[in-house]
Amino acid sequence: MKKLVTIFLLMLIHFSQVLSQEDKINLIVIGAHPDDCDGRAGGTAIEFARRGHNVLFVSLTNGDAGHFNKGGEPLANIRKLEAQEAGKRFGVQYLVLDNHDGRLMPTLEVRDQVIRLIRQWNADIVMVHRPNDYHPDHRYTSILVQDAAYMVIVPNIVPDTPPLKKNPVFLYTEDRFVKPQPFSPDIVIDISDSWDQKMYAMSAHVSQFFEWLPWTSGSLDQVPEGEAARLEWLKKIRGPGQINDEKRQALIKWYGAEKGKKAKIAESFEICEYGRRPSDGEIKKLFPMMVK
User: Fold this and answer.
1) In this predicted model, what pLDDT tens digit does every residue of 139-175 receive, in sequence order?
2) Which residues contact 115 (CB under 8 A, 6 or more apart)?
3) What are φ and ψ of residue 257, in 5° steps?
4) Residue 241 near residue 191 (C-beta atoms within 8 A)
5) Cα(27)–Cα(132) distance, integer angstroms
6) 243 in any annotated domain
7) Which of 96, 115, 144, 240 has the fewest C-beta atoms lying within 10 Å of its C-beta?
């Protein structure tokens, strides 16, 4: 009798573990460079990770061109290490591919890489740049993910990796470009409680936020010395921004009036028409932080 009880309990534990894993949401954020995912979806990634869900950041290039006095393999190695540290701080996995920075093209080879990654992660949600962007790597990253959006369920495409049983929800991350069309904040996530952690994680990309980007904007001489001072400087220049009326209404829709009105910092996403078209009920299940 005791043996039967033990077996029954072990079966219950196994079932609960499987159920728990099935309940986990798999989010993959795909950017062009080893810091793109961080700024565009870092707070949302933290909100998922804190709840025990699976998050993968992917950079399609190795970032080997993004600096003014470093480059090639040495810079790529620096940026990979920075991404690994950022991933630890975010609480996510961070993968950097070896495609060259500034040379990314929407080829079949890279598309196959994207399809494999989305399938291997068994993604429920895929986030990426919009296709209208100043940087060619950003544009082509978006095109590559768009082109993969349907193919991830097609068995005869990339047959070495089993296809997904259902299409993920594909989302665009926010930008400020208005032509040919402005960004639409369909889904807005309150990241007020994860802002500080997001900034701390982003600060791991030293070569970018304290060297390369200040150099491109002519503000390199304004970067302070010391980790703490730099973190505060980064918070200032990457300020959370104002939540406009459109985003506020979306927050109220998803979180309810009380929480939606209190949100101070948010990240926004636009639903891509190429993936699954989720209902409002499905969106709430996919974003469990939307608890009213």
Assistant:
1) 999 999 999 999 999 999 999 999 999 999 999 999 9
2) 148, 151, 152, 157, 158, 161
3) -60, -45
4) no
5) 23
6) no
7) 240
Task: Please report which residue ranges of 161-219 form alpha helices under DSSP H.
Answer: 195-202, 206-207, 213-217
CATH number at residue 32: 3.40.50.10320
Contact 142, 129 (CB under 8 A): yes
Phi and psi of 176, rounded to 5°? -110, 10
Q: Which residue stretches of 55-135 are H helix? A: 72-90, 108-120
Dihedral sign (CA 275, 63, 206, 175): negative
| Model confidence at 18: pLDDT above 70 | no
* H/E stretch holding 270: strand 266-271
Say yes or no to pLDDT of 265 above 90. yes
Does residue 77 contact residue 34 with C-beta atoms inside 8 Å?
no
Domain that holds residue 108: 25-191+267-282
Break the chain down into helix, strand, coil percent, rounded to 5: 50, 15, 35
- Cα-Cα-Cα-Cα dihedral sign, residues 3, 5, 8, 10: negative
Beta strand pairing call for 93-99 and 54-61: parallel
Residue 257 maps to a domain: no
Asked if residues 130 and 94 have their Cβ atoms less than 8 Å apart, the reply is no
* Residue 146 domain flag: yes
Q: Is residue 111 part of a domain?
A: yes
How many independent structural domains does the chain possess?
1
Give 66's DSSP letter.
-
Whether residue 66 is predicted with pLDDT greater than 90 in this model: the reply is: yes
Q: Which residues contact 5 (CB under 8 A, 6 or more apart)?
A: none
Classify residue 171 as left (phi > 0), alpha (psi -120 to 50) or beta.
Answer: beta
Q: CA 91 to CA 86: how far, in whole Å? A: 8
